[in-house]
Amino acid sequence: MPRVLAHTLDDAPEQTRPTLEALKKRMGKLLNIHAGMAHSPVVLAAYAGVQEAITRHGSFDGRTREAIALAVGAVDRCGYCQSAHTLGGKADGLEPDQMLAIRAGHPTGEDKLDTLLAVMREAAADVGTVQDSTWEQAKAAGWSDEELAEAFAHLVVNLFTNYFNHYVGTELDVPAAPALGG
Question: Which overall architecture, per CATH, does domain 62-167 show?
Answer without folding.
Answer: Up-down Bundle (1.20)
